[in-house]
Structure formats: C-alpha cells, structure tokens
Amino acid sequence: MKKIGKQTFRIKDDVYIRDVFTIGGKKEGEGPIGKEFDMIVDDDLWGEDSWEKCELKFQKEAAQHLMNKNNLNTDDIDILISGDLLNQITSSSFAARDLMLPHIGVYGACSTMALTMGLGALIIDGGFASDIICVTSSHFCSAERQYRLPLEMGGQRHMSAQWTVTGSAAVWLSNSGSGPRIKNVTFGKIQDLGVKDVNNMGAAMAPAAYDSLKQHLDDTGTEYDLIVTGDLGTVGKSIVNKMFNEDKNSIESKYDDCGTIIYDIEKQDVHAGGSGCGCSASVFGAFLYKKLQNKEINKLLFTSTGALHSPTAMLQGESIPGIAHCVGIEM
Asked: Where are the domains of the chain?
C-alpha cells in the first residue's frame, strides 16, 4: 500500500520537480521576491481586451516558456493539469485549448498549485505518465470582479481583506532527471467553521490548513526544515499558529505563509497579505523551489490553502468552506 496513516500517500518511485517558470504582475514585481520571478508584466491587460483574457495568457505563457526553456514539445508532455479561480476554470480551459496538451482541469480555489502537483505525483508514481506540467494562475482584477465588487465602484477594502496575486507558475514533474522530489502527498478534508465574511478569507481557510498540516505530520512523522502554507495572509497565519500552540505542538519557529512572503505588508498596502491561486504558485516557483535547489533547506512541506467561496451560495446564506492540500518535498 502506498497510503500511510489516514490521508497521506507515499510516493515510492522518484517524482522529480524538474523545473518551474513564474510570471508576476507589477505589484508582485515590486515585492520582496520580485527579482526572483522569471518574468514581470507591468500591464494588467498584457495587450488583451479583458482581465480574464490576460489571466489565461499568463497561464499559457508560463507553460509555454517552461517547455521552451527545457526544449520540450507537446509530444514530450503526457498531461497538463491546471485550474484557476474563475467560473468553469476558464483561464485553464482556454489556455489548454491553445497549448494542445491532454488536459485534466481541477478546481481547488487557492489550493490549486499543491492539488495539481499532488495529483501529478500520484499519476507518475502509478506509472500512468512520465512527464506532467502543473499550472495555475490568478489575477487581482478578474477575481475581484467575480467574487466581490466591480473595481470601478471604488469600494473601501476591509483590513482583513487580502490582495489577489496577479501571477502564474508552471511546474514540470518527471520520473527522470534530478532536483527536488515529491515524497508525500496529503489531500485535505473540507473544514467549515461557519465564516461568511468574503473579506476574511484567511479565517475561512485557517482551520483546513491546521487540519491538513496536523494530519500530514502525524501520518509521516517527518521533521521538515520549513513549513509553508499558501494564501492565509496575516490573519490566517496567526490562527494556524494559535491552533498549533493550543495543541501543544508549536510549528511557529519553522512556519511561514506565501501570503506574507510575496508582498511587503507594511509598504505595499495589501492589508492582510496575498491570496489567489497565483500566490502559493508564484512563491513556490520563484522562492521556495530555489531554496531547495540551493540546499538552503532540504525538506519542505508545501501546503496550498483554498476558500471554496461561491458568490451564489453566499447570497443564499451559505458559509465559506476551506480546503488544504500538502506536498512533502525533499532534496
């Protein structure tokens, strides 16, 4: 059995993270890790006539540049696994249409990067594919239009609100080569403590992050050098720390969150930090992957978190369920 504990799958054969390619927007380029992106796009439309078309271009270009960088053609890639925040994962579907690769589309909201990498690792470990590209994206303007208010209204943002990252990352997984390896994958359970505030995604996602992290650590017994969640921001990160401290099992000394890494919270006026599919994806590709390559860390627990928020359900009085998926990576 490749399943260990209650929810974790051990990757027995080698699944290498061969390479990544990251694209960020102007605000992301001005942040603390801005210089680490492979490409920065200053125009929030990137020559397109809508934000949604710009976002699919982010995703398509990230995947295409990753392939070009490694001299890969469509015959070298068995599957493209992708997802995004928009209805019917339109950015992913339209990008996949242009890339002409066999496509598995998934929806995990902001948890998509870890979800696609986890699924890709299981497929390769099972012998069903040798090379897979995982990609996701988000765009501040398209996300605000769908989930909250049109930007043209100029609404006042709440202090607990997070700034959706404009960015994308593509990750190449392979059963051959070298580099960091995916060793364990934990798919999370949906957690819902009744949060209904669309301006407080961190509080909605934090219980799921705690639940998945605790389960992964219990299942594997691995001592990680660094544990990073995605997209919780300052509010969610503080809740996760509080939950672990109350559990008498603090992770605070080796724990961080992508939503607090990608922006300078004090100088960039992003309130509670970053969020969106592109948040954990960008931070992993531009920052964490390089830490592994440079052997600054040898064991990383990468956990993307998602608020499964539906504007329609919210209008019907529903809450915001949260989900988190963990990927254990080792050099």
From this structure: 14-174, 181-330
Stretches in the chain below the pLDDT threshold 70: 148-160, 162
| The token pair that represents 158 in the structure block | 């709440």
Burial class (CB in 10 A: 0-12, 13-18, 19+), 49: exposed
Amino acid identity of residue 9, one-letter, is F
Q: Name the nearest CA neighbour of 230 among 200, 210, 209, 250.
A: 209
Q: What architecture is the 181-330 domain classified under in CATH?
A: 3-Layer(aba) Sandwich (3.40)
Which class would CATH give 14-174?
Answer: alpha beta
pLDDT digits (tens, 9 = 90+) for 129-149: 999 999 999 998 887 887 766
Provide the whole-model pTM: 0.95
| Count of beta carbons in the 10 Å neighbourhood of residue 48 | 14
The answer to whether 14-174 and 181-330 have equal CATH topology is yes
CB-based contact 53:91 (threshold 8 Å):
no
> Per residue in 50-77, is it b (16+ CB within 10 Å) or e — as a string?
ebbbbbbbbbbbbbbbbbeeeebeeeeb
pLDDT of residue 282: 97
